[in-house]
Every structure is written in C-alpha cells, then in structure tokens.
Specification:
Order of helices and strands: EHHEEHEHEHEHHHEHEHEHEHEHEH
Helix content: 25-40%
Number of domains: 2
Number of helices: 14
Structural class: alpha/beta
Strand content: 15-25%
Strand order of the largest sheet: 3-2-1-4-5-6
Distance between the termini: 46 Å
Number of strands: 12
C-alpha cells in the first residue's frame, strides 16, 4: 500500500500530527509512507522512522505541480493540515481515497473540498463561536487528527507526541542547567498583555523556587535576550540551538514556561510539565485545541492590556502554576 501524508504549516502543528502519523504506521505496517512538509516545518519529522520518505515543498513551487509526481502512484492520501495547500497536494496524487478536514464555519472550504477530496471531516473548533459560547467544548487537535486517520481505516491508535532526540543532541546541551526551569522567550511575551519589562520581572520572580533558570530564544530575539542577561534575571541564555537541541534542553528541565504553542508542543513531546500563557483573545479555543498534551500542565490567560495591575496578576498566576506543577 502506498500512502501520502501532507502537512505544510507550522512546526507545532506537525508535532501534533505525530500521533496520527504513528497511528497510520501501526495500522498499515507494510505500507510505504511519504510525508510532504514545508521547508520550514520539515525538521519536526525528518528523523521520524514511521515515515519512509520526507519531502519538503520548495517555497516557490506550486503544491499541485510538486505532488503531481505521485499521480496515480498513491492509494491513500491524507491532508493533515486544514489548508488549501495540503488539499491541493493530496488532490494532485489522484489517489482513490483522499481525506482532509476543515473548520465548521469555513463554508467555502467545505463547498470546494469535493474538488480535492473524496471525504472531508469537519472540526467544531472556531475562534468566534468559542468566545460567544463559553460552554462550547473544543477537542484537542491531536484527537481530531486521530479521528481523521481513523476515517482512512487506521485502527491502531497511538497517542504519544514524538520528537526523535539523539545522544549527540543531549551532549550538545549538557553544559546548560539541568533540573531547573526553562523559560522560552517568544514574541507574545513582548506585546498584547505582556511586555519585555514585565517578562524580566517575571523571570526574576521565578527564582523564588530555588531552581536554575534557563532562557531559550530564537535569533530574532537576541536584543531582548541581551536585556534579560543584563538584568541578571536568568542563570543561562541560549539562542543558538538547533530544533533537536532545543527539545533536548527542554527535556533536562523540571518545568517549561512559555507563551509559544510550538514550545508548548515540544515540551509535551519530551514529557515535561508546562505552564503556558495563551492570548486573551480566543483563549477558550487555544486553551483546549492547543493545550499541553498528556503532560502535567497549567494554563493562564494573558490580560487584555498592559496596566500594572494586569501584568502583576499575570505574573502571580504563572508563579502559582509553576508552584503547583513543582509540588505535584
């Protein structure tokens, strides 16, 4: 059996797809499975042994034209991302069975999906409805994807997130503090209900737990990381890690503190307790669909403004969450 899977969006979403990938492999153990990713998110699965081939869609290439190389060579094609790009990739294979999913309020996508797919699943996740209907339950994206591949005939359900770390990855971060708190500095710490100044205060307040504090960050946040270093808020900062080294650094921690969903899912994949501050807008959706998965966690809501009392409340709730996770 020849299977093609496609997911070309964000790294965190591809990490959330690894249980579905493992479920397909376990259900079709003799199948040849090809995964199409973007050049950006490929790193999340490039070592994944559940896949026989991983190919990245070049940024300038039409997705349908790229996938046409698989035309009539695929038995089952599944778009793991709810995007037109993934639908086009799956459609170009002309596989007999072509599956994907979209959201309930995307009426145009639902209407046009019949051009691309033989079967469409519909997710009830919707930002506006989640805010308007507080009682509305939104399923985790992992569970939505597991149900999607079940529609394709997958019967062996595998629920664990997966990142493949090597001893070399772990050796590269052996100099970083272990058994402490890892704080991932991301853009949402700097705006919309948070600020760099408040973040520096928060990191300093995390010292009350008597654990070493590591701050990880991407290259674009070097300037903000330098301000944290100058304030002496953290014991170590690292912004030069590869994806797998970053995951290995999380693995060494007792707890991860983040606002970034990619970091949330990396922490879940390496089984680390996590506290995440989600954006005030669409909080009900985010805190359900993209919550830490199958790990102890705490979730807080960022305030809608940067008033002193709002920021103080955010810090207090994060500190309470960290304390609860460390004492669990």
């Amino acid at each position: 059996m020849r299977i093609l899977l496609s997911r070309t969006d964000r790294i965190g979403d591809l990490i959330l797809s690894t249980p579905a990938i493992a479920t397909v492999r376990a259900s079709f153990p003799k199948a040849h499975i090809t995964m199409i990713t973007s050049a950006y998110n490929r790193v999340a699965v490039e070592r994944n042994s559940d896949l026989d081939v991983v190919r990245a869609l070049p940024p300038s290439v039409n997705p349908g034209a790229f996938a046409s190389a698989y035309r009539e060579q695929i038995d089952l094609a599944i778009a793991l991302g709810p995007r037109a790009m993934d639908f086009a990739i799956v459609a170009a294979t002309r596989a007999r069975v072509r599956l994907g999913y979209t959201y309930s309020r995307r009426s145009l996508a639902r209407l046009t999906s019949r051009i691309y797919l033989t079967r469409l699943a519909v997710s009830q996740a919707d930002p506006r409805l989640s805010d308007l209907q507080p009682q509305r339950h939104v399923r985790h994206e992992v569970d939505e994807l597991l149900d999607l591949v079940a529609l394709a005939g997958a019967t062996q359900r595998v629920a664990d997130l997966r990142i493949d770390l090597s001893d070399a990855d772990r050796a590269e971060v052996a100099h970083l503090p272990a058994g402490g708190l890892t704080f991932h500095l991301a853009d949402h710490w700097l705006r919309d209900g948070s600020s760099l100044e408040n973040t520096i205060v928060l990191i300093g307040e995390l010292r009350r737990f008597g654990l070493p504090i590591l701050v990880t960050h991407a290259a674009e946040h070097r300037e903000q990381a330098a301000a944290i270093a100058q304030a002496g808020a953290a014991d170590a900062l690292s912004g030069e890690l590869t994806f797998h080294q970053w995951a290995a650094a999380f693995e060494r921690s007792r707890c991860v503190v983040t606002v970034d969903t990619a970091a949330t899912h990396v922490a879940s994949a390496v089984r680390r307790p996590t506290i995440v501050a989600f954006e005030h807008r669409f909080f009900r959706l985010s805190s359900q669909e993209w919550a830490p998965y199958r790990v102890p966690h705490a979730i807080v809501r960022k305030p809608r403004d940067e008033r002193a009392d709002s920021l103080a409340r955010l810090r207090r709730e994060i500190l309470d969450g960290v304390g609860a996770l460390l004492n669990a």
